[in-house]
Amino acid sequence: MTALTDRPPAHPSASGPAGQAVAALLFVDAVGDALITTLDALVTGSLLPQTLIVLDATDGHRAGAVCRAHQVAREVTVVVDEVPTGLGARAAYARTTGPQPATELPSGTSAVWLLAAGQVPAQDALRSLADALRRSPSTGVVGPKLVDLDDPRQLRSVGIAATRTGRVLSTPEPGQPDMGQFDGRADVLGVPAAGLLAEADLWTRLGGHQPALGDLGADLDLSWRAHLAGRRVLTVPTARVAAPASSDLAGAQADTPARRRAARRVALARCAWWTAPFLALWLALTSLLGGLAMLLAKRPRAAGAEVADLGALLDPWRTLAARWRGRRGTVVRRSDLRSLFVGPGEVARHVGDRLNPGQVTPQASFDTDPEADSLAHVVRDDAASAGGSLGGRLGRNPGLWSVLAAVVAAGFAWRGVVGGHLGALRSGLVGGQLLGGRVTSGTLFHDWWDGWSGSGLGADAPGGPASALLAGPAWVIAHVPFLGVTAPGGAAAAALVAATVPLAAWTAYVAGRVVTLQKWPRALVGLAWAASPVAAAAVLEGRLAALVALVLLPLVVAGTARLLGRGGRTTTAAATGLVAAALGAFVPALLVVLLVVLVAGVVLAPGAAKGRALLAAALPIGLLGPWGVDVAHHPAELLTGPGLLAYAGSAPSLSHLALLSPGPTGHYPWWAAAPVAGLAVVCLVRGRRRGLSLTLLGLVGVVGLAGALAVPRVRLGVVPLGQSGAGNVLVPWWGTAMLLALAGLLGVVLVGLSDLTLRRGRGGWAAVARWPAVAALVVVAVGGPALYGWGGIDGRLRAWTDPRPAIAADQAGAPQANRTLLLAPTPAGMGYRLVAAESPDLSVDLGTRGLDAGTDDGAGSPAAASAPAGTSAAAAAFTAPSPDLAAATIQLLLDGSTGVSGSDSSDAAPSARLVDLGVGFVGLGTRASAAMAQRLDATAGLVRMGSRGGYDYWRVQPPIASADSSVGAPRIRLVAGTTTTGVAVTGEHGATSTRVRAAATGTLLVSEPTAWVRHATVTVDGREVAAIGGRPAYAIPAGDHRLSITVDPEQPWWRFGQAALLLVGLYLALPTRRARRSS
Amino acid sequence: MKRPTRPTVKRVGLAALRAVVVAGAAGGVVQAAQATSWSADLSSATTRASAAGAPTALTSSTVICPGAELSGISGVKDVAVPAKVAAAAAPADAVQALLGRAPGAGTLGVGSVTAGARPSASGTNRAVVVGGVPASGAVGVSGAGGLAPGVVATQEWRVDSKDLRGLVSVPCGSAVDNAWIVAGGGDPGRQERLVLVNPGANVVTADIAMYGAAGAIVSPNGNDVVVPAHGRATVLLDAISSAEKTPVVHVTTAGGLVYAAVNDTWTDGSVAAGSDDASPVAAPATTLVIPAVAVNGPTKVRVAVPGNHDAVVQLRTIGPGGGSPLPKGGVATVKAHSVGEFDLGGLPAGTYAVQVTADEPVVAGALAIRRASGAPGDFAWSGASAPISAVAGAAFVPSSGAGAVARALTLVSSGDPASAEVTVVDASGTPTVRNVEVPADSTAAVALPAGTSQVWVRRTAGEGALRGAVVSTSGAGAAQLLATANLAPAPLTTLTTRVLALP
Questions:
Q1: Which one, A166, B261, B393, B451, has least CB within 10 Å?
Q2: What's residue A383's pLDDT?
Q3: Cβ-Cβ contacts under 8 Å, A730 against chain B
Q4: B163-218 confidence digits (pLDDT tens)
Q5: What pLDDT score was predicted for residue B156?
Q6: Is some CB atom of chain B closer than 8 A to the CB atom of A756?
C-alpha cells in the first residue's frame, strides 16, 4: 500500500471552495484491489468530488455495483455509465462530452477529474488541483505530479514537455527520484490524463481526448487545444497522484516510436496551416540529423527512433483528421504559446545527456563499450593516469617527449628544405622514388573511382586505392590558408615524408600499450622504430608506401594482438581492419602477411576472437575490392607499392641484409640495427607469462628477415629504354620486409624490457644486471634520431616545379583540358610524356595498370583508323588517341614520317594528329638537336612560345575560331559543318556537363582512346548517345543542347558497396565512452 | 646458497629454448640464403614494348625548287625566265631492290609552295612530271605513297638573248636550317640573288653571313631576313657586300627551315656574260669532292674556311685516269673565316672531279666559264656534294632536235672503287640500265642520249665515296651554254626516331 493515504481525512466535503462542484470520472476496466484502493483514496481525500461517474468497462459491468457498495457511495453521488468493454479510458472519458453525451454531467458541475482504477490520489490532491483551477479564471486544465504507485519516491511525470515540432522531452526521466526538483513548474504544454482536472465547460467544449492520436498524443493534444482556446494548463506539484507503472494514462515520455510519432502529429495538427509544410520539412531534417547523431554515438536504437519520427509524415490523413476535429475554438495566436515550448538549449542539453548516458542513468551506461581501447582513450588514459595539471601531465609524458625528439630530429634533417625550399610544401617533392606532379585531391579521387584512370591518355583500369587515400590529405592541405599550395597531392606526399618519423614514433608508442602500460620503454622503442636505418632510408629515398607502413604497421600489429587476445573488442577489430586496409593499399605484401595471421586467428583463436579476426580480415578485403583481385593477378604488384622498387644491383650484401641494413643511408653505419637484434635475443630469454608473445614476435622477425633476404632475388622487370637506369633489373625493395623484421624484434625488446624492476633496492643484483640492456635501448633510441637529424636529407629530395609554362598548366584544367606533349631526348630514342590534368603517379611504381586491358585495342592506331560507313567526315578524319598515335605523331613531327609502312598515316598533318591527341602544347627538351627544334618550327599548326624548365615550347593551334591566340587545342571539340568549336570540359578524362550549340548537325570528338568509350556515358539533353563506330565520336543534332559526359566506375556496385562498408567499419571502429558505473 | 626450485629451472629452460629456436631460425634463414642461388622472375607481366625506330619507306616527301629567280625583289625589275621543273621518282626496280618490296601506287605533283595550292602538274606513274613555275614564287614537288621514295627534281631554263644569257639547271632540294652556297663575284654588272623558300607554315627568320677574301663580312642587312610561311624571300647579296670578289654565303635559320639557292647573273657592260644557280654545297669537312667541273676556259675553285683556324688546303683533279695534282701545285693556306680561290685554268679541256683536302673543315665550289673576250658567254657553278648512299638522280625536261641540251653524267669514286647501276630514262619513259665500274679516285663518264628525262645512279658495290653530276651544254666552244647539276640524293627511307613512353 502506498503512503499517500496515511493521513486521516480532514474536513472532507463534497464541494470545493467557492462553489466548485467536481465530477470525478473514474474509469474501471477491472474489478479488484486496484479499484478498491482508488475508492479508498477518494473517500479519504480532503476534498471529495461531488459526483463520481463510474465508467464501467468491466466484463459484466460489475464495477458500478462495487462502487455503489463502497463507502464512497455514502459520501458522493455515484453515477454508473456502462461503457463498452474494450473502450479505452480516454474514449470513455469523452462519453461525457459532445452534443449528445452518453453520460450527462450533473448540472452545476464546474470541473471534471479524470481517474482510473488503480490510481491513488493523495489526500489533498483534489483540493490542490481545485485550488489551482480556482485561483486563476484563465486556468482551464490542471494536472498533478504523477509518481510511481509502487515507489512513490520515483517520478512518473510533472507535465508534458515538448518542442514546437512535437519532440517530447523526458523531464523527468522515468524513475528519476522525486527530490522536489520539479516543484517549481507551473505552466506546462500538457498534462497526462491521470488525475487531470479540467474546467467542465472547457472539457465539454473541447470534446475530451481524441483517442485517434494515441495515449500521449491525445493528452498532449487536449492540453494544446486548451491553450489554443485561451486557457492555461498547469501542473500542480503539490497534488500527487500515484499511478501504476503499467498505466498509460500517467506517462509523459515518448518512450515508444508510436508515442513519438503521435506527438509529432499533434504538433503538425495544431500549428498554423501555413506553417505545416515547413514544420514537416524541419521535422524531417531534424529527425534525420538526430538519427545520424545517435548513430555516430553508437546508439542505433535511438537513431532508429529518431528516424522513425518520419513516420508521422507518412500518414498525413491522420494529422488532417485531427486538425479537422480541432478546427474550432482557437482564440489565441499560436505565437503566444512560444514560452510553453522547450527551447533549443534545453533540447541540446537533453540530447547531450543522451549521448553521454553514463552520467544520466545507470542503465544507459550498459549500452556503451565497457573497455573501449581506442587510441584516443589510450592517450587520454595516459594523461589522466599521470595526475596533476594538464601541462604537468604532458610534461611528464615520455610519449610526448619521444615525439618531440623525433620532431626535432626531423626538423634538423630537413633544415635545408625548410630553409631554402619551402616550395616543397606547396608543390611537393621530386627525387628518389618521388616523381612529383600537379596532383589535386579531385584527380586522386577520380583516379580510383573512375573506370578510366591515370595520366596522359589514361588506362583502361581504375587506379589503386592509395590514390583515394591520398585524396583526403590532399584536400585538407589544399585548404590550408596562406600556404598557396599548387600541387596538393605532391604537398600531401611531402608532408608525409616530413612527418613520418614523428608520426611513426607516436604510433609505435601508442601501439606499445598492448604490451605494457609503462611509458618509458614504449617511448624508447617508438624512437628506435621511427629513426631506424630502414626508416631513414624510406624517408631519404621518398618511398611513399614504406612511410605509410612505418606509421601504420605498429598499429596493425598492436591491433591484431589485441583483437586476438581476451581483452579484444569489436571496436579494436574494426579499427585494425580499417588501418590494415590503408596499409594494404600501399603495401599489399604486408596485408598478405596480416591476412595469414588473421585467418590463423579465425581457425585457432578462442570464442569471440574468431569473429573479431574475421571482421578484421573481411574489412580490408572488402574495402580494397577489385583492386585486390588485380594485384593478385599480377604477383609482381603484390610485392611492390608506390616507391617500393629497387635495382637488384644496389642490394646490400647478404651480411648487411641479415643485419637489417637497407644500404648506404646518411650517416648510419651498416650495423646500426644490430644492437636491436642483439637486444631481442637477450630479451627472448625472459620467461614468465609472456613466452608465447615473445616466441610469436620473434618468428615475425624471422619471417621479415627471410623476406629481406629473398626479395632482392625476385625479378620484377627491367627498367625500359629511355628511362633513368635503363637496363637495370627491378626487384622489390627489401626494406619493406626489414620493417616487418624490425617490428618483430622491437616487439620482443618491448616485451622483454617491460614491467621489469630496475632498482637494486627492489630487484637486487638481478636488477643491476638488466641495466646494460636498458642502456643499449637508450643508445639505440637516442642514436637513431641523432643520426637521422645529422645526416639530413642529403639533397636527394628537392621541391618539384612544373616544367610547363603557366599557360599550359592552366589550360590543362577546365575548360580546354588539353594535354602537353613533353619530348625529352634520351640515348635510346625520343622519350615522350603526355601531361594532363589527370593524376600522374606521385611515386615510381611498377605500372601494370591497364596492362591486360590495354589502352589501345587497335581501333585507335593510325593503321586501323578507317571509319565505318555512314560516319561524318569529321568522325572519319578523327583518329582516336592511342600510344601508337602518339608515337606516330612524334615521328611525323621529328622525321617527317610515321614509320608505319603502307599506312595512310601521312594523310594527316602532324598538327591534326596533335589535335586528335588533345595536345595543346608541345615541349621539346633543350638537349634535343637544333634540327628537331627547327622541324617543329616548320610544322604547320605549331607556334613557338618560349622556353621553360629545360623545354622549348610550341602551341598547337586549335582548329577552332578563337580570338585568344594563346588557346591550345581543346580536349573535346564539336565539328558542325565547317565550324569547329571547343567544348568545355569540367571533369576528369573528358567528363563534362555543359551546354553546346551546334549550327548544324555535328560531331562531337573527344580526344580519348577508343577503350574509353566503354567507360563513358554521353547524353545530349538527357538522351544517351552512342559512339560512332565505337570511337569517341558522337553525333550532335543541330541546336542548343545540354551535354553531359560521365566517366563511370568500372563496377559501380563495388564502389558503393565499398563506401557502405567503409561507413560500417568507421561506425564499428568509433570509440565509445568507457563505462564508469555510477555510484 | 639458495637452490633453484623446479619451476624456476623449467622457466629458464623454456626461455633458453625459445631463444635458441628463434635465433636458430634466423640463422637458418641466413644460412639458406647463403647456400642457395634461388631466384624468381615475375617480370613477364610487366614488360611493355616500346615503339622501336627503324628505317622505313618514305610515305611522303617534298623537295623545293627556287622558282623564277629573277623576280620578287621590290624595286628591282622582274625578269621572266622560261623555267620548268622536271620531277621524277626513283625507278621501281631500284626502289624494290632497296626496300625489298614494290613501292606501290602514289602521286607526284609539281606546284606552288603556297598554302593550299593545287599541283600544276602531277602524275601517278614514274614518268617525269614537268611543271612550270609561277611568276614570282617557289615550287614544291611532293611525292606521296609509292611515289614518295626517291623523289628528285630539277629546275632548268635556258635563255640566249642580248640582255640575259645562260643555261641554268639547279637540283631542287630540301629545306634546311644551315646552308653554304659558293657563288657570286665582284665583277661589274654581276648580280647575286639569294632565294630563300620557306615551305613551312610558320614564318622563318634567316641570318645571312658572307665570307670573302679578307674575312667575314658583317652587315646588318643580312640579319633577321623574314621568310613568310609557304613563301619566298629574295635578297640581293650586293646589299651585304657589293665589292666582294669571292663571296661564300652562309644561311642559318631560326623558327623553321628554308631552301636556299643563289642565282648569279653577269651582265658585263651590255653583254650578257651568263647566268647560273648555285645550290647548297656539302657541309664543312676536311675532304670534299666536287664531282664535275667542265673545264674549257677560265675555271676556279673557291674554298672557304668557316672555322677559327687557318686551313692548309690542297686540291687535285680526278679524271678517268685517276687523280692529278694541279699544275701549280694546288696547295695554299686559307685564313680563318676567309675565302681562297684556286685557278684550274691551265688544265686541258674536259670534265674533272676536284678533290679538296684541308686540315680544317672547309666548303668548296667551282666556277667554269665559257666566254670569249667581250663576247656573250655563260658559266656554271658546281659545288662539293655528299656521297651517294643509296640512290641519287636527276630529272630533266626532255629536249631533242636542234638546240637540244646535251647532257653527260660524270661519276667519281674517291678512296676506293665503286660500282653503280645507272638507269637512263628517255623521253618516252623507257629506262635503260647499265652497270658502271668506277675505279678508285677516278671518274667515269656516261653519255646521256638526247631526250633523256631521268638519270639514276644506285650504288651496287664498292667502298668508294661515289658522287655524280650531270653537265648540260648547249652549243659549243666559248659561246657554249653550260650548267652543272649534282645528282640529288633521293632518299627512299627515313630512319624514324625511336619513341619511348616515359613514366
A1: B451
A2: 43
A3: 43
A4: 899 999 999 998 888 999 999 988 888 999 999 999 887 888 999 999 999 999 98
A5: 94
A6: no
* Burial (CB count within 10 angstroms: exposed 0-12, middle 13-18, buried 19+), residue A399: buried
Residue B262 lies in a domain: no
Chain A residues closer than 8 Å to B25 by CB: 698-699, 702
Cβ neighbours for A1034, distance < 8 A, ≥ 6 positions apart: A1003, A1004, A1006, A1018, A1020, A1025, A1026, A1027, A1028
Nearest to A139 by CA among A48, A26, A251, A229: A229
Distance of residue B398 Cα from the nearest chain A Cα, in angstroms: 31
Considering only CB atoms, which chain B residues are within 8 Å of A718?
43, 47
CB pairs under 8 A between A and B: 221
Cell numbers for A447:
583516379
What pLDDT is attached to residue A366?
29
Residues of chain A with pLDDT under 50: 1-19, 358-386, 850-866, 899-906, 1074-1079
* pLDDT above 90 (res B444): yes
Contact B270/A at CB under 8 A: no
Tell me the CATH number at B347: 2.60.290.11
Q: What residue in A sits closest to B115 (Cα-Cα)?
A: A940
Q: What is the pLDDT of residue A689?
A: 63
Predicted confidence at residue B353, as pLDDT, reads 95
**Residue B462, phi then psi, degrees to nearest 5:** 90, 160
Q: Which domain holds residue B426?
A: 285-489
CB A613 within 8 A of CB A602: yes
Q: How many CB atoms lie within 10 A of CB B21?
A: 15
**The pLDDT value given to residue A532:** 94
C-alpha cell at A605: 583463436
For A948, counting Cβ atoms within 10 Å of its Cβ (0-12 exposed, 13-18 middle, 19+ buried), the class is: middle
For chain A, say whether B226 makes contact (Cβ under 8 Å): no
In a domain, B345, yes or no: yes
Q: Nearest CA to CA, how far is A902 from chain B (Å)?
A: 8
Interface membership of A897 toward B (CB under 8 Å): yes
Cross-chain CB nearest to B502 (options A634, A831, A901): A831
Residues of B in contact with A723 (CB under 8 A): 500, 502-503
Which residue has cell 600522374? A840
The ipTM value here is 0.70
Q: Which of B26, B56, B200 comes nearest A938 by C-beta?
A: B200
Q: Say whether B502 and A851 touch across the interface (CB within 8 A).
A: no
Amino acid at B499: V
**DSSP calls for A453-520:** BSSTT-BSSPPPHHHHHHHHHHHHHHT-TTT--S-HHHHHHHHHHHHHHHHHHHHHHHHGGGT-S-HH
Max distance between CA atoms of chain B, in angstroms, equals 138
In-domain check, residue B363: yes
Beta bridge mates, A656: none
d(C-alpha A547, C-alpha A551), whole Å: 6
> What distance in Å separates the CA atoms of residue A802 and residue A796, rounded to the nearest whole number?
18
Strands A972-976 and A1002-1006: antiparallel
Residue A514, min C-alpha distance to chain B (Å): 21
Whose cell is 463502497? That residue is: A70
When CB atoms are compared, the residue of B11, B496, B501 closest to A687 is B11
Looking at the structure of chain B, the number of domains it has is 1
Interface of A with B in 597-656 (CB under 8 A): 634-636, 639, 654
Q: CB-CB: which of B30, B255, B495 is closest to A944?
A: B255
Instruction: Output the pTM of the full model.
Output: 0.69
Contact across the interface for B501 and A832, Cβ inside 8 Å: yes
Residue A906: the pLDDT is: 43
Q: List the single residue in A716, A931, A938 with the smallest CB-CB distance to B42.
A: A716
The answer to whether residue B211 is domain-embedded is no
| Window 77-136 of B, Cβ < 8 Å to A | 104, 115
